[in-house]
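Internal tracking record. Fields below are filled automatically when a chain is submitted to the structure queue. Please do not edit lines marked as system-generated. If the sequence contains nonstandard residues, flag them in the REMARKS field before resubmitting.
Queue: standard
Priority: normal
Entity type: single polypeptide chain
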Amino acid sequence: MSKIDLSTIIPRWEWRSFRDTFGSAEMIIQQHESTRTIESEELYILSRLHDVNIKIRDRKVEIKKLLEINDDGLEKWTPVLKAAFPLSCDVVTDILKAVDLVMDNQTGVTIELDAFLGTYVKTNPSLQIVEVTKSRSGYEIDGVRIELADLKIAGQGIRTMAVEDEDPRLVIALVKKLDLIKFANINYIRAMQRMLGFEDERWPKR
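SYSTEM-GENERATED OUTPUT FOLLOWS
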């Protein structure tokens, strides 16, 4: 089976922003010992019509869903699908449903990564493959996870910081403590849409 069990995952509340630098907050965070450092190359399937988060990393595809936005503007995300290539037709159907597309009837066929991208993504004008490289460092302050990462998104360099935890009160408390509240809270998909001009297509400037 290509699907991976997600039943034990607890959804997390997240604050995230994208900038060239986060100033004094970075210096405070980097005084703590890094809990992990990860380098990765990923593909995002970005939709011109939807905000769904579809990512491919290490030959696995993952879909994350935004469940809720609270009064502090924090976003509650959870993975709803994770599967390894080759994908079954049922999994491909689920992925395409997330962006309101329909799979051709190919019952019993498994689909490799290149075939999936070539057949269902590259041929669809509403979708775009976005290459992203990440160099991520993890930290923990007051029991809350923090991530600092240097990114290349479609060749454009940018930095991102995220604060996340299962308890939104801990997240917003740390965001305020580090004075990150002055920066815009924006998720990966919206950030990429802005960088590639998708938002202008969906909501033209007046």
